[in-house]
């Protein structure tokens, strides 16, 4: 693996300090060719196209548009060389017919023409289409070639001309499979960072949307772009994010998840500390609330920071429907949260230690259902939970058509077989199925994973201490959530610290006409539909603005 931190020096140190400077140290085209072959280790995709004895064109053919290269680079160079040769032949012919006094003029023209080849900006006269960038350092030249550029060298030249002609294929813009919704845009981010930036620009047509680019990864040199709204985003949070990204020393960044481990405040917690989305409308909505989006080239998942717990229980569709429906959905998710997290543990605690809490008829019914089961309640609960996790992972990893069949048919067959064999009680099958289905209602997949892990801890504590154990574990995680911060923002706000006015976009969704303020202490101004350049001091010690 090449994705861990590396204390070794980069293998590209060879070309970091060697400049292409034909003025101080003139290089021949043969020398340039040997140097590029050495830097790219004679890779078979490195191509050289000499044009006469004055120019050398170098590129990596898999990453450039060959048709455009022929039209915009090779053809103009060849035509330019033909014009020069015709001009020189015409001058030589006229030279013989002139007097000895007039012979000096062509000589001066030839010298001027020769010197013109070494002038900076010479290629601007040759290439009339596209943007030309001049580079002197090997590092920059190799980096541009890898990104899809054609580099033109000239004999005794001062700089190399770089023309960007990338041809990286990318998939079409489609609706993300991980964020399905009934109402709302169907667009989704893809693996091309340029396309993703254009999607954000399309949603937010304002100069307040700012992009900042960094390069992370010693080997991959992955582009990482920060997107935020100037005048809304807190500058201290933005600077903190810049500092954390600048400290990352990693060999490669292949997905946005590589960066999360380096920028979060609490690396050991199971709860997500960054929000991921593949939907441009959701990303822009969070940017307008004062958050920062982190785009990584090659990943359709955009990271959003800072975050609070309530974000993970919300969906974009909550804001597209009537506020009554949106509020009902959030209350439903709160109910499913308790079912997914506590229902198996409560079943184990009641059947093992607190049978007296149940009505007599229900207790007898439950005892009859468990008659003949050879294992204690906690053992059969663990068995069913692990079996359910097997089916869940199998349904995700297998192809879509096969995965659905395995998850549905497998659950039916295993559950029925386990009940008929007397391994588990039918009531427990219902309990595990309800808790599993409830976890699917949670919009955030990463928060659902955290709940699945915590559910096992609650199961264990319920089997040992009963309801007291469940209460103890719940209090531990509640204290943990209340103590967490995300870039200085309290993670469990507005519950801890409690802010009544901020509940309008947490437990329920207020009406748009009364929802005048932005939720949480993230943006530097609190009023919606207003952008300001004024900043409000932000303290990570808890003195955040009200």
Automatic annotation (TrEMBL):
Any one GO cellular component localisation term in the record: membrane
* Key word Nucleotide-binding present: no
User: Transmembrane segments in this chain: where?
Assistant: 331-353, 398-417, 423-445, 457-481
UniProt cross-references to InterPro entries, sorted A to Z? Spore_Ger (IPR004995), UPF0353/GerABKA_families (IPR050768)
Please list where the region (Disordered) is annotated.
Answer: 84-110
Q: Where is the composition biased (Polar residues)?
A: 87-102
What does the entry give for GO biological process? spore germination
Supply the alphabetized keyword list.
Answer: Membrane, Transmembrane, Transmembrane helix
Belongs to which family?
Belongs to the GerABKA family.
**Matching PANTHER family:** LEUCINE ZIPPER PROTEIN 4, SPORE GERMINATION PROTEIN
- This chain's protein is named Uncharacterized protein
Q: Which organism is it from?
A: Desulfuribacillus stibiiarsenatis
């Amino acid at each position: 693996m090449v994705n861990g931190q590396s204390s070794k020096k980069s293998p590209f140190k060879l070309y970091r300090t060697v400049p292409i400077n034909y003025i101080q140290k003139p290089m021949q085209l043969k020398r340039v060719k040997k140097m590029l072959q050495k830097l790219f280790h004679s890779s078979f995709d490195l191509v050289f196209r000499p044009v006469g004895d004055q120019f050398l064109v170098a590129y990596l053919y898999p990453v450039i548009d060959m048709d455009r290269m022929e039209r915009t680079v090779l053809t103009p160079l060849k035509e330019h060389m033909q014009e020069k040769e015709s001009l020189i032949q015409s001058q030589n012919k006229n030279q013989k017919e002139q007097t000895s006094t007039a012979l000096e003029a062509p000589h001066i023209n030839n010298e001027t023409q020769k010197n013109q080849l070494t002038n900076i900006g010479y290629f601007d006269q040759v290439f009339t289409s596209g943007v030309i960038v001049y580079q002197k350092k090997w590092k920059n030249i190799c980096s541009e070639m890898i990104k899809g550029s054609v580099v033109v060298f000239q004999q005794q030249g001062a700089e190399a001309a770089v023309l960007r002609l990338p041809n990286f294929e990318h998939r079409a813009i489609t609706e993300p499979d991980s964020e399905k919704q009934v109402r709302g845009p169907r667009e989704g981010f893809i693996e091309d960072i340029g396309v993703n930036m254009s999607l954000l620009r399309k949603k937010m047509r304002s100069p307040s949307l700012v992009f900042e680019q960094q390069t992370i990864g010693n080997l991959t040199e992955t582009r990482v772009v920060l997107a935020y709204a100037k005048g809304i985003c807190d500058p201290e949070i933005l600077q903190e994010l810049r500092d954390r990204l600048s400290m990352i020393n990693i060999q490669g960044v292949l997905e946005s998840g590589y960066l999360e481990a380096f920028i979060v405040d609490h690396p050991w917690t199971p709860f997500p500390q960054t929000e991921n989305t593949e939907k441009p409308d959701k990303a822009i909505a969070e940017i307008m609330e004062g958050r920062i989006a982190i785009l990584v080239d090659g990943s359709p998942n955009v990271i959003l920071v800072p975050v609070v717990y309530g974000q993970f229980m919300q969906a974009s569709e909550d804001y597209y429907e009537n506020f009554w429906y949106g509020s009902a959905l959030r209350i439903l998710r709160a109910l499913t949260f308790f079912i997914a997290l506590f229902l198996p543990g409560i079943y184990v605690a009641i059947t093992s230690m607190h049978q007296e809490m149940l009505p007599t008829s229900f207790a007898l019914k439950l005892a009859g259902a468990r008659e003949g089961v050879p294992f204690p309640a906690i053992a059969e609960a663990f068995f069913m939970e692990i079996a359910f996790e097997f089916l869940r992972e199998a349904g995700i990893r297998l192809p879509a058509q096969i995965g659905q069949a395995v998850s549905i048919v497998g659950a039916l067959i295993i559950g029925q077989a386990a009940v008929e064999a007397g391994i588990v009680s039918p009531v427990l099958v219902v309990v595990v199925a309800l808790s599993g289905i409830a976890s699917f209602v949670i919009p955030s997949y990463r928060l659902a994973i955290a709940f699945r892990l915590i559910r096992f801890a609650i199961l264990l504590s319920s089997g040992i201490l009963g309801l007291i154990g469940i209460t103890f574990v719940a209090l531990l995680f509640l204290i943990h959530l209340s103590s967490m911060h995300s870039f200085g923002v309290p993670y469990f706000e507005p519950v801890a610290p409690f802010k009544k006015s901020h509940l309008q976009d947490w437990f329920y969704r207020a009406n748009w006409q009364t929802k005048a303020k932005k939720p949480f202490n993230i943006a530097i101004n609190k009023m919606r539909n207003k952008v300001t350049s004024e900043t409000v001091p932000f303290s990570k010690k808890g003195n955040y603005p009200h």
